[in-house]
Amino acid sequence: MEPTSQLTRPDGRVDLSDTAPIRGSRFFNDELAPVPVEKRTWSTYNYFALWMGMAHNIPSYALAASLIALGMNWLQALITITLGNLIVLVPMLLNSHAGTKYGIPFPVFARAFYGVRGANLAALLRAFIACGWFGIQTWVGGEAIYILVGKLTGSGWRNAAELGGQPWTLWLSFGVFWVVQMLIIWRGMEAVRRFENWTAPLVSVGFLILLAYVLIKAGGLGPILSEPAKLGWGAGFWKIFAPSLMAMIAFWSTLSLNMPDFTRFGGSQRKQARGQVLGLPTTMTFIAIVAILTTSGGQVLYGEAIWDPAQLADRFSSPALVVVALIALVLATISANLAANVVSPSYDFSNAFPKRITFAVGGLITGVIGVVIMPWELYSDPDIYIFAWLGFYGGVLGAVAGVLVAGYWVVKRTNLDLAGLYAEGGRYWFRAGWNWRALVATAVGGVLAVGGAYTAPGSQGPFPADGLIPFLKPVYDYSWVAGLAGAFVVYLALSWAHRQPKEETREQSGPSRVGTAAVDG
């Protein structure tokens, strides 16, 4: 590879004067290429709208509502969610910095620490979890369509013959919802941005309608706020609080890794950071308040905590009200699913085979895996949803986040060789494309985080009651923190034991085997 000039702009953002020398690399394609500075145009509002679109969706609502179903009162649930969002915002902003500075997506960023090939491990871990989330969001969106059409057409739709334990009309709704999302993602990243911008102001409408109806029927806030906490503030609450807090963090731990997929388009560090600070805590707190009050009100009205908003809307007596609410919920779910669960794995799968998988094909792969993973099972019970699904994967991704934060901010001091991220045999090739230090750190952090995974007595779940590794059982309640801290410390220790030269910020030279003949093997 010929030397490639790396230019640092006055605002700190880095660009390549010419990408031609790296275009022959088999680790390069147009979707993974660094975004030129002149095309990094996203504003504060774009990021605020992105978060509004991602946060205001049915699973976000269900996450907050499920805390009520688990026995918390409104104040306990709100404290848990707000604290979780503030905590996860920290690694999210730290990893976002690289996207804006270098114009690179998450899987390319990970190459600096896992190796050009090893980054596929981190990327695919993130991608397969996103596939699960895509499936969950698509299932609940399809359920909303199923209920909506049922309100308009009558009992024949709702009482259709069953297939696989569900009415065939529900499967049809699920399929239609899936196809609509695939059509949008097939048009590319710019189509996603436009969709987020125009839906963001609308997605709150459905949730506000639900809340207003419940408040009116329940007689105002008084009966809701006076509901006693089933758990109290003693040992019963604290036993639920820790794993619930980890679940709140895990809900956005995926984005704490792959926000560079979006911040690579940022007009400045200030714009992306301000948009996220204004966006994530405020929008998630808003949806949490709406979900908590609505679910608590439903508990007063119907005698049970209905944590699925589509099912709650189905109880309303006014068909017109149900239709308006569900249309807004469907738009909200499409908006969130595209941004949070399709963009990232599209890049991640493309990173695995850059010359064969485009952004659109990666999105299609995400959609297929999202169905195969059977999301209706993951979403069927709040215990499985929070403690098994969110708690487990959150711990694993916490370990990846620990490696990235330690590597970028402490070891590399935010200095990367941009062209080297695409080079075979270059600075980030390590040994055969893999950095064993990152692998060891991720493994240690992952075992600390989820080695003690257990199923609580009286709950459903795939883990043994005493934990997979019994002596680590107490640590599982703090899975994300354990994973991040463990991987952070181990990666620093291994990296400092074998110091590497500081990154160059001008011309890169040195051995490389990139050429126009290099293609996917």
Short description, anyone?
This is NCS1 nucleoside transporter family. This protein has helices spanning 44-55, 58-69, 74-102, 106-114, 119-153, 155-158, 168-186, 189-199, 204-218, 221-225, 235-258, 260-263, 269-302, 309-313, 319-352, 359-372, 375-378, 382-411, 436-450, 473-476, 479-497; strands at residues 6-8, 14-16, 162-163, 166-167.
In N-to-C order, the SSE pattern is EEHHHHHHEEHHHHHHHHHHHHHHH
Strand content: under 5%
Instruction: Supply the helix-strand structural class.
Output: mainly alpha
- The number of strands is 4
State Rg: 23 Å
Strand count, sense and barrel status of the largest sheet are: 2 strands, antiparallel
Pfam family, one: Transp_cyt_pur
Subcellular location: Membrane
Transmembrane segments: 48-68, 74-94, 127-148, 168-186, 198-216, 236-257, 277-296, 316-336, 357-378, 384-411, 436-456, 476-497
Organism: Amycolatopsis methanolica 239
Task: Characterize the structure shown.
The chain is mainly α. The chain has one domain: Hydantoin permease (Orthogonal Bundle), CATH 1.10.4160. The protein contains 21 helices and four strands. The strands form two sheets. The protein has a two-stranded antiparallel ribbon. Strands 3-4 form a two-stranded antiparallel ribbon. It starts with 5 loop residues before the first strand and ends in a 24-residue tail after the last helix. Residues 503-521 have low confidence and may be disordered.
